[in-house]
Amino acid sequence: MTNRMHATTRREFIKVAGASSAVIASGYFTSIAVAQSKSSLEKLNLACVGTANRAGDNISKVKHESIVALCDVDSTYMQRALAQFPSARAYQDYREMIDKEADKVDAVVVAVADHNHFPAAMRAIRAGTHVYCEKPLTHTVTEARRLALAAKEKGVATQMGTQIHAEENYRRVVEIIQAGVIGDVHEVHVWVGKGWGGGDRPEKGEEPPASLNWDLWLGPAPVRPFATGRYHPAQWRKWWDFGQGTLGDMGCHYMDLPFWALKLRHPTSIEAEGPAVHPETAPLGLTVRYEFPAAEGRPAVKFTWYDGDMIPKMVAGEEVPGNGVMFVGSQGKMFADYGRYRLFPTAKFAKFTPPPKTIERSIGHHTEWLKACRDGSPTTCNFDYSGALTEAVLLGNVAYRLGKKIAWDAENMKVIGMPEAEKYLVKEYRKGWEIS
Fold it and tell me: For the segment 47-84, what is each residue's pLDDT rounded down to a tens digit?
């Protein structure tokens, strides 16, 4: 039996065993199910792309499984991770790790800079492994669609790192909106007082520290010299070559709530305003206006995003804190953030009683994905849902960089009448990193 056949058999067996354990729980008890269910307790073999910062947090949520391979371009980070998982095989290049380990692992966790999300995740999906990937799902709009389609074709379990999606407050907000408590929602405002942007490329480059493989950190991005404190480990988010500014960083977290509650999918038009477009870095403040068509029994929605130094102090006539979401409906308004919600007018909802719970308590964002890897159960932040969310988020920057209101043809992945938009929807990968 080849390694590939062995890996496929193992994954299929874990999936069957996971499903069998669910059968046992429902009361259908057979000797075959008992035998198969024992392997549902078997640990999944995981490979991790990235080991520190966001990656470190993700690893902490899955470390009870079997971490068999680790990849990091920074040897300092890698040594810390290996101290925790001494038996894991170490790599610097995720291409090498996925190619060599695909026959041995069940799933891959990707948590590195945005420009490396798609190449790593797509390589893992094509190898037939389940994938967890941090937000935003990809660096470009087209990558998000391609990744979602590939995951569907391969039938792998996927989850994007919008961890707040699993928290109780989001679930209660979705129930209230979908119960029609504030009527038909026709307007949404989302704002985050954070500013990843600004700055010019350093005039002079430096030698990277001995602990950092700078070429591998760049991955598919164009070559540029290393500069201390400008890119690795955190400042990369402001640079177009590596990140998507504040919108890319936080949009998938805060826009997720109205996307879920209103069952949004693809906007039809997008326009943005901010400072003059810089060729290298994202703006320190941005306003984006989306229009979503009527669908699933709800009206069309006007959706506005604000970030950085362009966030409002008043939204829909209400004073608001530095981050949040405001739903404006025909019968009232609702503010929400990660951990709370408020209904307006205050007097009208003074004796408000929440509707019955229709969304079950989450078993945990990462646990949900691990369960899906075992038994094929659904995940709430799978790449189909998260891919569409990421597309919408990143289209805000496309409109901003074009400096025009754009009409979006989601089916054909085109900005109508603007061929010049293509350079912001797709990108050229450095030789050796291409994904055909």
Answer: 999 999 999 999 999 999 999 999 999 999 999 999 99
- Confidence at residue 367, expressed as pLDDT on a 0 to 100 scale: 98
3-state helix, strand, coil in the chain (%, to 5): 40, 20, 40
- pLDDT attached to residue 436: 85
Check if the beta carbon of residue 22 is closer than 8 Å to that of residue 375: yes
185 and 66 assigned to the same domain = no
Segment holding 160, helix H or strand E: strand 158-161
> 97 and 169 share a domain?
no
Residue 275 lies in a domain: yes
Rounded Cα distance between 6 and 188, Å, is: 50
Peptide bond into 279 cis (omega under 30): no
pLDDT in tens, 233-251: 989 999 999 999 999 999 9
Quick one: tokens of 190? 């989302």
CB atoms within 10 A of CB 178: 17
Question: Please, which residues have CB within 8 angstroms of residue 431's CB and are 6 or more apart in sequence?
Answer: none
Domain containing residue 150: 3-163
Overall residue count recorded for the chain in this entry: 436
Q: Is the pLDDT of residue 19 over 50?
A: no
117 and 172 both lie in a single domain: no
**Long-range pairs, 60-65, Cβ under 8 A, ≥24:** 61/364, 61/365, 61/366, 62/109, 62/132, 62/366, 62/370, 65/370
pLDDT for 243: 98
Domain shared by 92 and 178, yes or no: no
Q: Are 262 and 299 in contact (CB under 8 A)?
A: no
Q: Give Rg (Cα) of the chain.
A: 22
